[in-house]
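Thread: Newbie trying to understand structure tokens

Hi all, I'm a second-year student working on a class project, and my supervisor (Dr. K.) asked me to get a predicted structure for one chain before our next meeting. I've only ever worked with sequences, so writing a 3D structure as a token string is new to me. If someone could post the tokens and maybe explain what I'm looking at, I'd be very grateful. Here's the chain:
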Amino acid sequence: MTLYVYNTLSRSKEEFVPLQGNTVRMYVCGPTVYDYPHIGNARSFAVFDTIRRYLEYKGYRVTFVTNITDIDDKMIARAREEGTTVRELAARFTEEYLRIARELNLKPATVNPRATEHIDDMIDMIQHIVDNGKAYVVDGDVYFDVAGHEQYGVLSRISKDELAAGARVEVDEKKRDPRDFALWKAEKPGEPSWESPWGRGRPGWHIECSAMGARFLGLPFDIHGGGQDLIFPHHENEIAQSSAAYNIDTPVKYWLHNGFLTIDKEKMSKSEGNFYTAREVLDRHDHQAVRLYLVSAHYRQPLDFNEAALEQAQHSLDRLRNAAELLRGRIRVLEKAGDRAKGSDRELKESVARLREGFERAMDDDFNTPSALAEIFTFVRDVNTLAPEVGSAGTLREALAALTEVVGVLGIDLSGGAQTVGAGAAALVEGLIGLLLEIREEARAAKDYATADRIRARLGELGVVVADTKDGPTWKIAR
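---
Reply by user tm_fold:
Sure, no problem. This is what the structure looks like when written as tokens:
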């Protein structure tokens, strides 16, 4: 099947064809580490991790770069408020970001470049822009000349005339034109600064991603992602900078942007004060349920935040876990009792084939996760109906592998237990439950029903539901 993606640059779905064979080079704007990320930021993290995972599922080799902005105006202002240094502030919130990444089960980036480690790359790119006559220097500041760049506005579709009317433009008397933006900012007292050909100073925000993307992926590269709020001015300026520096029309082939996360249909925003931090949400909820919630809507559509939606995500996650545990339980039973021919084997195999086909069809349509989830839960229904009658452990293993793989693309780990429990601990829990059920079966065989009932009751109190079937006991973890 062919993958189609919605390209913000063309405002249309396009067939996805990488620039270099089977390799995909992908850059996603990461956090500015001046504060706790809000749950809307976490949506972007989860969305692009899912896109990366699906590309890998399709067989592509993905180089995935997401930066950490550890120097900009917000960093400096927050450090002053707290009476700390920008470096100390960055270290604290970088660690928080990496913790959130682990809790949301984000795959580690191929590279996580920090802006302050690539100042030389930024200076080099700015120098190219100046040398090409697309930027000018005033008292140690370097500004991009928007009027001299004919293609400016190609991504956002905002005209130069609209910009001239004053929309979202910084006021600066040094600029030749109010539409121009800073590539390099001259040193100010108390601010971090670096040596440059234009005097000591620091980079503008926009140049950071342009320089790091070029440094680690080369130009042009395949995919640049981020939230819709980054289309203008950040991504528009990135295109202008890279084009002006290296004389290329299209530095990135596909531009992908996720929709906003809202509260009561209003955009979540720190500046408006209507937001929840990712930490608040993750501390109150199963981490995997949060991840499932974040990918439950199509990535380009808004997603409204509310507790009812998170409860629904938890219910959906429980259904996935229960189906996986039903399959594991039946596999254990058949491994002990031996395979036996049953008609349900064929039906479950057919359901596995439908799952894979439907999942790929949905995800090939611009990563349509709601449709993909619908296919998954249709399969879960089939598992609940068919698995108890399947006679081959091999058929059950095939079903478990398919379920585990497709939900893994969405970042959900069905290896066992809640996200707050490590994989080793989950395996230990599974082994201990299995041992207790063996002891219970021995007690029943010896007609020691009091002990057998006590084990079942105690497991029930701990949230482990035991079901006795004609082929032996099965268990699942209830909420």
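A couple of things are worth pointing out once you decode it. Confidence is low (pLDDT under 50) at residues 417-425. The chain has 15 helices and 15 strands. Feel free to ask follow-ups in this thread.
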